[in-house]
Specification:
mainly alpha
């Protein structure tokens, strides 16, 4: 259930800091380490947005 919870929040664009607090982690390090696969799409989406913003 926790993985599904994190996946759904991550896929919906909820910031990692908020997800971390919701699952009871003291900081984002544990959340990022344990749920890396679920969070990766959000990171990629952010990177693609930055590429679009700063394209030459």
């Amino acid at each position: 259930m926790r993985h599904s919870f994190v996946s759904l929040l991550s896929d919906s664009g909820v910031p990692i800091e908020d997800i971390s607090r919701l699952v009871g982690h003291r900081n984002t390090v544990v959340t990022e380490t344990v749920y890396r696969k679920q969070i990766r799409p959000v990171l990629m989406q952010g990177a693609e947005a930055m590429d679009e913003i700063f394209k030459s």
